[in-house]
Amino acid sequence: MGNLQFLLRQHVGAPCEPVVKSGDKVKKGTLIAAPAGLGANIFSSVYGTVQDVAGDRIIIEPDKVQEEEFVPIQDGSHLDMVKEAGIVGMGGAGFPTGVKLGTDLNGGYILVNAVECEPGLYHNIRQIEDNIEMTLKGVKYCMEISNAAKAVFAIKAKNKKAVETLRKAVHDEDNIFIHLLPDIYPMGEERAVVREVLGKLLDPTQLPSAADSIVVNVETALRVAEAIDLKKPCFSKNLTVIGKLHGGNAPHVYMDVPVGTSVEELIERSGGIDGVYGEVIMGGPFTGHSTALDVPITKTTGGIIVTMEFPDLHGAPVGLLICACAGNEARMREVCTKMNGNVVSVGTCKNAFEMKNGTLKCQDPGNCPGQAQKCLQFKKDGAEYIIIGNCSDCSNTVMGSAPKMKLKVFHLTDHVMRTIGHPLYRRLTVSKQEAQLPNGK
Predict the structure, then answer these.
(1) CA 318, CA 403: separation in Å to the nearest integer?
(2) Whether the Cβ atoms of residue 428 and residue 392 lie closer than 8 Å to each other
(3) Which region, left, alpha or beta, applies to residue 296 given φ > 0 means left and ψ of -120 to 50 means alpha?
(4) What distance in Å separates the CA atoms of residue 284 and residue 304, rounded to the nearest whole number?
(5) Which member of 24, 103, 380, 432 lies 3.0 to 4.6 Å from 20 by CB, making a disulfide possible if both were Cys?
(6) Is domain 317-420 annotated with CATH 3.40.50.2300?
(7) CB 386 within 8 A of CB 319
(8) What is the distance between the alpha carbons of residues 85 and 97, in angstroms, rounded to a whole number?
(9) Max CA separation in the chain (angstroms)
């Protein structure tokens, strides 16, 4: 095990402030950084020695011998224990869970996001299959803390083993239910979960609390149970490593990886990179970003993907269709550059709403109004290719117009999908109506 790096920003809010210095000995569970405002405590995930406290990170050299025991958090109210443990949204957003659960739902809903929305990632589903007891405990704690009357697991119907495991687990629960979802991206987006489960479409500025609900990632629920039952700080992460690896492109699912572990170490543990590759992505194919091998994982890291090489567009003119459901313009331009394309036109999906911080949110995630007008603009601007990053429905509407204009289509995720043997995002194979499923226990 090499040195571990703990980034001081692993959550929504300001970076944490270090509470250790170079030379300090730390244990697994030692507090090493604390928030000055909105944020979450950061703990060492190993026994070792602090080597450096840099501007944005703390570097720890692990001891050769690692013990299983950890420094427990203090007893307190269940909400206080969640805050003390430094738990954040572990599905990628990183919002401090103690703040989220501090909302009094007055009889509302805990919506458990078990959608595992990004293709190629499997650790949330594996957690349900292998650790449903602790996961369910966490959900019940979330209900108790936030004064929720009901909980609903949102999960894709295709995950049959996990769904059956859930059905058995909640069979005798009077207030915990299952809602089955179609395999359409982005069913795991927070407002999409609220819409699909509760039938309420929130506008982009509204939080789930506007629908008397809190959305909690399935791993976050597990960490809540660990904090309360085991007094365990949040210092480990479940994740998936997949892609162009020696031994094939099957997913490698890891549970309780120490936060701070490098991308390279996890790739090597999974067999190592197989020959020439395109890029390494941290996160999922849609919303992840390219990363370097020496970058550490954080509390929000869900995936590490090694991709095949990019196709070469030989300088051809390209239009970029920016969507709120995937990479931003900078990410889309990066992919275009790696494909040796020349950007001549940029358009934004008309469903994308610009937030005050400049980010985009979809007005109705997964339901697209059509893209013919954007494709026509790309054609007028001289594009021969378009690169899109759209949801399943958006991509479907692009394919209804772009080929007729002789525009060749690439999706932001194509190099990932080809690497892992997943169907490309082009046309929906079933209608959204056909994809709807019966729900309940």
Answers:
(1) 14
(2) yes
(3) beta
(4) 8
(5) 24
(6) yes
(7) yes
(8) 10
(9) 65
| Residue 418, phi then psi, degrees to nearest 5 | -65, -35
Helix (H, G, I), strand (E, B) or coil at 120: coil
| Fold exhibited by the domain 4-62 | OB fold (Dihydrolipoamide Acetyltransferase, E2P) (2.40.50)
- For the chain, give every domain's residue range: 4-62, 78-230, 236-306, 317-420
Mean per-residue pLDDT, 200-214: 96
Give yes or no for a contact between 300 and 90, defined as CB atoms under 8 angstroms apart: yes
92 touches 302 (CB < 8 A): yes
Tell me what pLDDT residue 439 has. Answer: 64
Report the distance separating Cα 246 and Cα 340, nearest Å.
Answer: 27
Do 78-230 and 4-62 fall under one CATH topology? Answer: no
SS3 for 65-107 is CCCCCCCCCCCCCHHHHHHHCCCECCCCCCCEHHHHCCCCCCC
Say what the pLDDT of residue 92 is.
78
Domain covering 236-306, topology = Ubiquitin-like (UB roll) (3.10.20)
- Give the domain 78-230 fold: Rossmann fold (3.40.50)
Whether the pLDDT of residue 434 is over 50: the answer is no
Mean pLDDT of the chain: 95
First-to-final CA distance of the chain: 44
Residue 28, SS3 per DSSP: coil
